[in-house]
Amino acid sequence: MIAAWIDTEGCITAQRGKKNAFYLAIRITQKDPRPLRWIQRRTNGSLQYKRDRRLYVLSISSRQATTVLENTLPYFLSKREQVELGIELGNKPIPIQRQAEISGELKRLKRTTYV
């Protein structure tokens, strides 16, 4: 069920952190907080209400995000390639140059349109 939410309502990104290194982050947005609270309890994510956008954002980052993606990989349909890149990023150490490449590839995959 978690994979389905990430696959449809989620975003897998590489965020720049300390010393220009990147870390893995997953965000799921939804107006109804109930499914996000369910996922939060299982992933130790952080749930926030964005008043200006009137929606909830569940954030899962670093090691927790890697664990979530590793455990749910077989269930992804649309974002499988992003998940595989996210797992690679989360399983450091990898060179900063490769981290930047993964970040760029994740951005490119987000802009992919399907007909």
Strand order of the largest sheet: 1-2-4-3
Rg, rounded, reads: 14 Å
- Which CATH class is shown? Alpha Beta
At CATH level 3, the topology is: Endonuclease I-creI
Please estimate the helix content: 40-55%
SS strand fraction: 15-25%
What characterizes the major β-sheet? 4 strands, antiparallel
Mean pLDDT across all amino acids:
94
CATH architectural group? Roll
Low-confidence stretches: none
* SS element count, helices: 5
Q: How many structural domains does the protein architecture include?
A: 1
How far the N terminus sits from the C terminus, by CA atoms, comes to 25 Å
Number of strands: 4
Shape: globular
Alpha-beta content class: alpha+beta
Superfamily (CATH H level) name: Homing endonucleases
Written as H for each helix and E for each strand, in order along the chain, the element string is HEEHEEHHH
Description of the molecule:
By secondary structure, the chain is an alpha+beta fold. It has a single domain (2-110), classed as Homing endonucleases (Endonuclease I-creI, Roll). It contains five helices and four strands. The protein has helices spanning 2-9, 33-43, 62-72, 80-90, 96-110; strands at residues 10-16, 22-30, 46-50, 55-61. It has a four-stranded antiparallel sheet. A hairpin with a 5-residue loop joins strand 1 (10-16) and strand 2 (22-30). The two termini are 25 Å apart. 28% of the residues are buried.
